[in-house]
Amino acid sequence: MRGGFVWDDGIYITGNPLVKASDGLRRFWFTTEAFDYYPITWSLWWPEWRRWGEAATGYHVLSVLLHAINAVLVWLVLRRLDIPGAWFAAVVFAIHPVNVASVAWISEQKNTLALLFSVLTVLFYLRFDQEDNRVWYVFSLAAFMLALLSKSAVVMLPMVLLACVGWARRTVRVRDLLRTSPFFLLSCIFGLVSMANSKLG
User: Fold this and answer.
1) Helices (H), 38-133
2) Nearest-angstrom CA–CA distance, 70 and 63
3) 1 lies in a domain?
């Protein structure tokens, strides 16, 4: 909690004119001025800067809270998949240095935020698959959209959905491929958007 800003935190947050701009929210969503098209992540940093400015503690507190929520969600997914030692795996996830590094590095809030929506995507999809309630399917698709808007690196998540379904039922059916096709379509769209944005600078 007493940590400061490290590495590219200055580029992304404290020294970023878009985060400080009064019209920053509009520019995050509707222009290619930001380094990457992560409008939800940028939109989170925008009010954080107004609340905490260059005081790093607030950013760290939020990162720790997001990580704690993610650890609980990981446990819920593993439990739904009937994986032995789900609680232990969630604890390992919570304290593993690779994951903790994202929590300590403020500009990597995009990782913890994208993971939040990604794990919700999996959890909702598993509920849909097991209960056959289309409401959970809609929730899963919406959560995936939010994950992509947080960090487009989650484009491979549809493969994770198929892997989870395959684990739960020991098979992947043609119907599963059809059900996940909208997720793959979103991945393709956001992959193209990311490539176009990086070319534009």
Assistant:
1) 39-52, 56-80, 86-95, 97-104, 109-131
2) 10
3) no
Low-confidence ranges of the chain (pLDDT < 70): 197-201
Whether residue 3 lies inside any domain: the answer is no
Number of domain units in the chain? 1
Please check whether residue 28 lies inside any domain of the structure: yes
Specify if 2 maps to a domain.
Answer: no
Domain that holds residue 129: 9-200
The model carries a pTM of: 0.90
User: Per the structure block, which two tokens stand in for 38?
Assistant: 């992560």
Q: What is the pLDDT of residues 117-163, one digit of tens each?
A: 999 999 999 999 988 899 999 999 999 999 999 998 999 999 999 99
